[in-house]
Design brief:
- A four-stranded antiparallel β-sheet has the order 1-2-3-4.
- Helix content is 32%, strand content 32%.
- Residues 138-142 have low confidence and may be disordered.
- It has 142 residues and is of the alpha+beta class.
Length: 142
């Protein structure tokens, strides 16, 4: 089955990079399951479903994030509308290499994408596409 990102690709749009939610989201439920001798084993489904139903990607035209199983939350930010990207990482996030990516668009819109594994690789991919877009768009705007 195709991912959400593959399903919504526009004409001449190509996937440049993808990302996933960190596997460290299992840590809390695993610890609770061990402490309760397996009684809270169903808690392991929560991070599994969150990780399995989240698609994060960068195309040559936009940043796309989709999450949710029953209700769906999607964010699609066009590359030309992105003003900046910020990464928030706590101490644990720095040690385990995950964080929240904040995509700041024109007009003050901010989109958080939480628990992204290797957030700096995702940020580099977005910045690379922005640079290519600006290099291609610069001659036409003159």
């Amino acid at each position: 089955m195709a991912s959400y990102i593959e399903q919504v690709l526009g004409r001449d749009e190509k996937i440049v990079a993808t990302a996933k939610i960190t596997g460290w989201t299992y840590a809390g439920p695993v610890l609770l399951t061990v402490v309760t001798f397996g009684l809270l084993c169903p808690l392991l489904l929560i991070p599994y479903i969150a990780r399995a139903t989240t698609d994060l990607g960068v195309t040559n035209k936009r940043v796309i994030a989709k999450s949710g199983l029953i209700s769906r939350r999607t964010v699609e930010q066009r590359i030309q509308k992105i003003e900046s990207i910020r990464i928030n990482q706590g101490i644990v996030g720095r040690m385990l290499d995950y964080g929240t990516i904040m995509v700041h668009g024109t007009g003050g819109a901010t989109t958080p994408i939480r628990n992204v594994a290797d957030p700096f690789a995702f940020k580099r991919a977005v910045e690379s596409v922005i640079d290519e877009f600006e290099a291609g768009a610069a001659p036409e705007s003159r």
